[in-house]
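Friendly challenge for the regulars: who can give me the structure tokens for this chain first? No prize, just bragging rights.
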Amino acid sequence: MPGRRRARYVAPASRLAAPPGGANHRAFANKALSNREGPLFRHSSTARNGDIYLVETETYLVGPAGNPLTADATVPFSALHELPLVLFCRPNSWRDRLDQISSQHGISLNVVLEADCLALQTHVVADGGGYALLGPYALSAAAKECRLAAARLVEPSVPRHIALSMSPHGELTLACRTVMKAIQEIVRTENDGLSHSLP
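First reply, four minutes later:
Bragging rights claimed.
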């Protein structure tokens, strides 16, 4: 399998990039996006700059169905050491956070493919080309298209917060407040049934 993987997915870090998450965040802050409010991922334990934290999500190690590494409900962060990973392209605050945690625990991350497209990540994983690190929403959607198995990262866990963020250049109009309230209600409803749809 390792030889087949190298032949099909050249290491280190083949890179298939859409506009990275960091660029989307900067464009949002600079009013380059038309939406004045929207959900973003945050890694800080406390909300800042007017963000409203909607829900805290865990991180899952995602592999192909039937693989032993993700057979249990949880997997220690140390299992990521030298594991072939499919991650988002840089610049990306999520990658920075993973590097920080890895450095603190003496873990070496082996990124064999960088791709901003979630569908590409999960199809590569399902085909045995590596492992991904995803939140429950992305995982639930991907499991409808691919045969995957996932285990929640622990020791340490890697939580992320879905935050509702308002552009600093935008005016908090009645319409904005109405949309923000609707988003919060949708997230609460979706989050209640999410755990039942994970692979």
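The radius of gyration is 18 Å. The chain has one domain: 2-197. Your move, everyone else.
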